[in-house]
């Protein structure tokens, strides 16, 4: 499998306008003289070759850290958001939700569900970021250089949707346990207690009861997260950042990454929120169905908790991209620049007067 991916990667347009070339090849002296000693040192300094098995594995590690850390950090807000979705009469709004939760369970109660959150979203991050890179290289390799550039947004959308399909299969059991712990008082206070109780009472099928709505929430979210981020990053460097990306320090590049991630996160929250409400209700009530929930809540009801989710997902997405990019810097991985028009395409358009 990896050998075929490597062949695709070597011929991929993403190695041209959308990503750097090789990372560790020996550079002959005449070549180094032509491209400059500084550029040669940068290429030699990378820790792996772009689109190599090691590159994809390290991308997966970056995904584990970015998703596992950030989702665990916002567990208190996520807990209140879930409770607001499943019992709006009791929790009413974010502030009331925090007050009621603290009054009933103390400050420690705000951390309920942290273990399934950390494990589940670490697994999701592994698949989400790691497989996104795999599918992006694979799909772009099916196209010629100019087509890959012209339809790059569709490549981002297809790659992210494919990656999230598998990521949600890994996440679903832990998400079910998390929601049960957070929204059913007295059911369980930890993953070790909730998991065997769910298996004993309802069987293993209960862990995938919410998989289809989870796909409905996460796949549009991830498509927006990756495609919007890639396009926003491209536009920021083109119209906002006052100097070319290659002239920016790594710190400045990470700031731009954070900004692009936050913008993408706001759109992600809006697109995926109705399905998020349905997932929370399904995992809370074992007798509920998607149809019964929609009938009970109505269109207005599925938007409950959107405000805190925008804050949570915007911050979450920005931090995830920041951590993911920072891990690439830390591990000296190739960091593809924003998409650039292929030289052949630019010359052709100039010749056509466009």
Automatic annotation (TrEMBL):
Pfam families assigned: Mito_carr
Alphabetical UniProt keywords: Membrane, Mitochondrion, Mitochondrion inner membrane, Repeat, Transit peptide, Transmembrane, Transmembrane helix, Transport
Topology relative to the membrane: Multi-pass membrane protein
Cellular component terms (Gene Ontology): mitochondrial inner membrane
Keyword Protein biosynthesis: no
Classification via InterPro entries: MCP_dom_sf, MCP_transmembrane, SLC25A3/Pic2/Mir1-like
Principal subcellular localization: mitochondrion
Solcar-type repeats, residues: 54-138, 151-235, 252-330
Any GO BP annotation: mitochondrial phosphate ion transmembrane transport
GO molecular function annotations of the record: phosphate transmembrane transporter activity
Location of this chain's protein in the cell: Mitochondrion inner membrane
Domain of life of the organism encoding this protein: Eukaryota
SUPFAM superfamilies (alphabetical): Mitochondrial carrier
Task of the protein: Transport of phosphate groups from the cytosol to the mitochondrial matrix.
Similarity section: Belongs to the mitochondrial carrier (TC 2.A.29) family.
PANTHER family named in the record: SOLUTE CARRIER FAMILY 25 (MITOCHONDRIAL CARRIER PHOSPHATE CARRIER), MEMBER 3, LIKE-RELATED-RELATED (PTHR45671), SOLUTE CARRIER FAMILY 25 MEMBER 3 (PTHR45671:SF10)
Entry protein name: Phosphate carrier protein, mitochondrial
